[in-house]
Amino acid sequence: MTSVRMSRLVLRDDSDQQWLFLTERDGERTFPIVIGNPEALEIQRILADEEHPRPLTHQLAFDAISALSAKLARVEIVDLRENTYFARLVLTTASSEEEIRVDARPSDALALGLRAGCPIHVAESVLEQARSDTSGPDLLADPDDGPEPSTDEPSEPEDPDSPDEGLL
Known about the structure:
By secondary structure, the chain is α+β, with helices and mostly antiparallel strands. The protein has 4 helices and 7 strands. Helix content is 24%, strand content 35%. The protein has a 7-stranded mixed β-sheet with strand order 3-2-1-7-4-5-6. Helix 1 (37-47) packs parallel to helix 3 and helix 2 (57-67) crosses helix 3 (106-116).
């Protein structure tokens, strides 16, 4: 397992999908996880150190773990299959040395992990599949903008009267 940290949270007003970037602590590999609005807003509240007047779902889960004399020891992102991440919460209790593992969606696990201030680990196989580096294209570029023009070769203007080639 590789230790990672949340490096960036990107919120888009016009989308139901938000982006959370994880970066390895002792390296430069990074990758995004697409999360939903409720999880993104919870993470934003945690980062801003804001509390909702009444406990929302993640606060409730965190309080329930604490009320059961357990502690969230770490979050693990353990698998990536068909573009879907799989995670688990690793809990410990004062009465047992045994770790308790609970399957979770990565977005929920990360929201709880950030609230608990616990370490986040990613399986090396997941990091290898999902990683990106900072020299690649911006994954958050507006899809309506189209690809960036290449600076290697001058581009030729399109002929509006020519038929489209290569379209299915």
